[in-house]
Amino acid sequence: MTSAPKVDSRDASGVAAEVTGLLRQSLPNWPGPAVDTATRAMIHVVARYCEIIIDRLNRAPDKNLLAFLDLLGAEPLPPQPARAPVTFYLTASRQADVMVPRRTQIAAPPLPGGQEPIVFETEHELTVTSARLDSLFVKDGSLDRYADLRMALGVAESPAAPIFEGNQPIEHALLIGLGAAVAQPVNQLRIRFDLGAPAAQLLRCAWEWRSEKEWIVLTPESDGTKGLTQSGEIVFRNLSAIPETVIEGTREHYLRCRLMDPLTGAMPQINRLVVTVDLEKDGIPLDKAFFNATPVDISKDFYPFGENPRFGDVFFFSSTPAFSPPGARITLHLRMTNPASAGETSPVLPVGPRNTRLAWEYWDGNTWVELGVAEFGRPAP
Question: Would the pTM count as exceeding 0.70?
Answer without folding.
Answer: no
